[in-house]
Specification:
The structure is a single chain. Helices cover 37% and strands 18% of the residues. It contains six helices and seven strands; from the N terminus they run βββαααβαβαββα.
Length: 186
């Protein structure tokens, strides 16, 4: 069966979606034996254009590491369930960091705060908001129960209840929806 179609973003045809968008899965898929810097540098070698020198790719990767607030742990092993390493929030930021290397215009985050405490959740999301503002990146994040502090970082909101959209608009006006539809948003 042959399928066809076209990829459009903001009404414009896109040849390759991977150059314009990125997707960060809920579960971090990282090599536990690598350091933060090694993981990001290796990804930069694979993702960034061949027109960049290895030194330019390394510099680009180091900049993204700094933007995500990971410079202090750049030399630390990622670790995993068996071997000690960086925290869960730092692991999530490494996953996001790797996807940000290609400077996507659009980034999808599947449960970026899953398994994190409220402080780590806020730290992850505030870094993403800062990068989005600096780079003009659109961020679409699926989050089930954001804390009040994380919720206040959102600009736009698509609120679902029982699989149906009950609100789509500015996040700051969502409290009105809570009253009208008796939907818990905090």
């Amino acid at each position: 069966m042959k399928e066809s179609g076209e990829i459009m973003i903001n009404g414009c045809r896109q040849k390759i979606a991977s150059r314009t968008s990125a997707y960060v899965t809920q579960e971090d898929v990282l090599m536990v034996t690598l350091t933060v810097a090694e993981a990001v540098h290796y990804s930069a070698e694979l993702q960034l254009p061949d027109s960049l020198t290895p030194a330019e790719k390394r510099s680009w990767a180091d900049d993204v590491i700094k933007q995500m607030g990971l410079a202090a742990v750049a030399g630390t092993r990622i670790g995993g369930p068996v071997s000690k390493g960086i925290s869960g929030g730092q692991r999530k930021r490494v996953s996001i960091c790797i996807e940000l290397l290609a400077s996507p215009a659009l980034i999808f985050l599947d449960e970026p705060t899953s398994g994190l405490d409220s402080a780590a959740s806020y730290h992850v999301m505030s870094r993403i908001v800062g990068i989005a503002k600096r780079n003009g990146t659109t961020v679409v994040a699926a989050i089930h129960q954001p804390s009040t502090e994380v919720f206040e970082l959102f600009h736009g909101l698509c609120l679902l209840a029982n699989g149906k959209t009950v609100y789509f608009g500015p996040a700051s006006k969502a409290m009105e929806v809570r009253i009208r539809f008796s939907v818990s948003i905090t």
